Structures are given as structure tokens and as C-alpha cells.
């Protein structure tokens, strides 16, 4: 049989466990949140470093000129620019031709076909 001392001890132990459960759960949740925020901070610092490097590159006139020539096909007035189109690219563009009719005509045709009781 349980004595009154054992019963009181069990109640005290349960009370202590219940008292510590919520703060312990909050502690674990906060530690997880701190770890998540540290990872986010590291990603943000990496992004800032990348953006600083990009800003440094864009501040160099040679880099800007090289990018303008490569991407935008800019040239100086006395220069002549040539764009080479390869034959295999031309034939691929012809094969990929779009549909003969607009998309809404195709949509309306499918609605009419769905409404047809013979199908």
C-alpha cells in the first residue's frame, strides 16, 4: 500500500515535472529558432558578399564595356559589328513554328467538340 508520504512525494514530483515542462518546451523551441536565424543570417551575409562583389565589378569601366559589347551588341561608331547566324539554328527555328490558329480558337473548338453529343 502507498503511504501518505509516498503519495505526497508523488504529487510533488508530478507538480515539479508539470512546472518544468512548459519552460523546457519553450527553451527547445527558442533554440531551434536561434539556429534557424543563424542559418538565415549566414545566407544573408553570403548574399551581401556576392552583391558587394557584383557592385565592385560594375564599378570597373572595362567590365561594363565588355558586358555591353557581349550582351547588348554595342560598338563604337567607327566599328562594324557582325552577328553570325549558324544554319542549324535557322532550320530549328522553322521546325518550331507556332500553331496556325490563335489559342482561343483552339479553346473554342474544344468546347464545341465537348458539347457535341455524337462524340
What's the layout of helices and strands?
Blueprint (H helix, E strand, L loop, with lengths): L3 H55 L2 H12 L14 H9 L7 H13 L4
Provide structural commentary.
This protein has helices at residues 4-58, 61-72, 87-95, 103-115. The mean pLDDT is 86. The protein has one domain (4-96). The chain is mostly helical and 119 residues long. Helix content is 75%, strand content 0%.
| Overall SS class | mainly alpha
SSE string, helices as H and strands as E: HHHH
By DSSP, the count of extended strands is 0
Number of contiguous helices: 4
Helix proportion range = over 70%
For the terminal residues, how far apart are their CA atoms?
83 Å
Task: Please give a handful of descriptors for the protein shown.
single chain, 119 residues, mainly alpha, 4 helices, flat
Summed up:
With 119 residues, this protein is mainly α. Helix content is 75%, strand content 0%.
Amino acid at each position: 500500500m502507498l503511504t501518505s508520504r509516498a503519495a505526497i512525494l508523488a504529487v510533488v514530483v508530478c507538480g515539479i515535472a508539470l512546472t518544468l515542462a512548459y519552460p523546457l518546451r519553450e527553451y527547445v523551441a527558442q533554440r531551434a529558432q536561434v539556429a534557424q536565424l543563424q542559418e538565415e543570417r549566414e545566407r544573408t551575409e553570403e548574399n551581401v558578399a556576392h552583391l558587394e562583389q557584383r557592385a565592385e565589378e560594375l564599378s570597373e569601366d572595362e567590365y561594363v564595356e565588355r558586358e555591353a559589347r557581349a550582351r547588348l551588341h554595342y560598338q563604337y561608331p567607327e566599328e562594324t559589328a557582325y552577328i553570325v547566324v549558324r544554319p542549324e539554328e535557322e532550320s530549328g527555328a522553322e521546325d518550331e513554328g507556332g500553331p496556325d490558329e490563335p489559342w482561343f480558337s483552339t479553346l473554342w473548338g474544344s468546347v464545341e467538340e465537348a458539347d457535341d453529343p455524337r462524340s
